[in-house]
């Protein structure tokens, strides 16, 4: 998983690094004597996440974001920001949400502090929204300028986001593996659309139209052909031409389980077959588990034992 780690006291280097992860901007250092910046970020393809810290007061100004949406959560104190549509004092309990159709500013960090920032490419958020409401989204989604993180759906979204922060802090750990991090990023986008205000929130609670049975067969065929791929419900739904919620409901009706549960079942089958065929002197359980997308050994072993009645190491050791 591509990562970026920068620590600098140079304004130009700070501006360039932050601009590459988020959006091009002008950085004005208001306290040159104490200025410093650090950034740790991961690139999940069309979603980027990072923890950004400044030492000394600064001002950041962008043109219209155009290509993406962003959510910023100050981790250590308040941050005064203009989202392009509202003047917001963001705090650890209140995220600021930025849209593509607005100029933005941020001013703060006189006492230092960190910020969690999530950048979502415009096409990703709007395609995900279209999947959820089963209709096209033809303009920038007018998301609300704030997201309450202290209760309700916003609190649940923030819990999920903090899992991604763990991946940022440990880029070599299992959470940062693409097969884990990419579905997590997709889940964050879906959860954001359920949590933040926008004109289509009411549609998210409406029952989806049931797709044709052939869409389920096509999705099953995709999973069977490439179970190691980092599938998400949204990616599968787009590949077979239906909405995400509709595919979820159709899987429950025709397959008897959600798409991701079916994916896990197929992956376990492939692991089981490989373990039975493998030479224990030449390979390990971890090698085979990683090959099929399992990165958390404890959860994998528990799922395998629940399905096959023995530990994966026992299967590998059998003649």
Give structural notes.
This protein has 319 residues and is α+β, with helices and mostly antiparallel strands. It has twelve helices and twelve strands. The chain has helices at 11-21, 122-133, 152-169, 178-195, 201-204, 213-225, 233-240, 244-254, 259-277, 285-291, 297-308, 312-317, and strands at 3-8, 26-29, 36-43, 47-55, 58-61, 68-74, 79-82, 87-90, 94-98, 105-108, 113-121, 146-148. The strands form two sheets. It has a seven-stranded antiparallel beta sheet, sandwiched between helices. A five-stranded antiparallel beta sheet has the order 2-5-10-7-8, with helices on one face. A hairpin with a 3-residue loop joins strand 3 and strand 4. Helix 3 (152-169) packs antiparallel against helix 4, helix 6 packs across helix 7 and helix 7 (233-240) packs across helix 8 (244-254). The two termini are 37 Å apart. The model has no long low-confidence stretch (mean pLDDT 91).
Number of strands: 12
Q: What are the secondary-structure elements, in order, as H or E?
A: EHEEEEEEEEEEHEHHHHHHHHHH
Major sheet, described briefly? 7 strands, antiparallel
Helical segment count: 12
| Percent range of helical residues | 40-55%
Radius of gyration: 22 Å
What is the mean predicted local confidence, pLDDT? 91
Strand order of the largest sheet: 1-3-4-11-6-9-12
Q: Give the percentage of residues in beta strands.
A: 15-25%
**What form results from the Cα inertia axes?**
globular
Structural class: alpha+beta
- Stretches where pLDDT falls below 50 for ≥5 residues? none
Distance between the termini: 37 Å
């Amino acid at each position: 998983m591509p990562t970026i780690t920068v620590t600098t006291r140079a304004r130009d280097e700070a501006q360039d690094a932050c601009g590459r992860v988020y959006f091009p901007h002008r950085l004005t250092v208001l306290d040159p004597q104490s200025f410093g910046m650090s950034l740790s970020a991961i690139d999940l393809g069309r979603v980027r996440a990072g923890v950004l810290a400044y030492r000394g007061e600064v001002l950041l100004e962008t043109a219209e974001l155009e290509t993406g949406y962003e959510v910023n959560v100050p981790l250590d104190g308040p941050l005064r920001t203009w989202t392009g549509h509202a003047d917001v004092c963001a705090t650890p309990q209140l995220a600021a949400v930025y849209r593509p159709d607005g100029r933005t500013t941020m001013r703060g960090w006189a006492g230092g502090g960190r910020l969690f920032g999530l950048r979502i490419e415009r096409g990703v958020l709007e395609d995900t929204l279209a999947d959820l409401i089963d209709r096209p989204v033809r303009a920038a989604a007018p998301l609300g300028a704030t997201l309450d993180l202290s209760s309700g759906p916003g609190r649940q979204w923030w819990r999920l986001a903090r899992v991604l922060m763990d991946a940022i802090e440990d880029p070599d750990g299992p959470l940062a593996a693409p097969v884990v991090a990419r579905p997590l990023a997709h889940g964050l986008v879906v959860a954001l659309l359920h949590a933040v205000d926008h004109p289509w929130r009411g549609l998210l609670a409406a029952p989806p139209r049931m797709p044709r049975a052939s869409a389920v067969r096509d999705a099953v065929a995709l999973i069977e052909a490439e179970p190691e791929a980092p599938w998400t419900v949204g990616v599968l739904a787009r590949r077979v031409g239906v909405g995400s919620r509709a595919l979820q409901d159709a899987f429950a009706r025709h397959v008897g389980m959600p798409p991701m549960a079916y994916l896990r079942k197929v992956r376990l089958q492939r692991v089981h077959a490989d373990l039975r065929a493998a030479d224990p002197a030449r390979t390990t359980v971890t090698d085979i588990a990683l090959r099929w997308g399992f990165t958390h050994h404890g959860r994998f072993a528990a799922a395998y034992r629940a399905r096959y009645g023995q530990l994966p190491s026992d299967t590998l050791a059998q003649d």
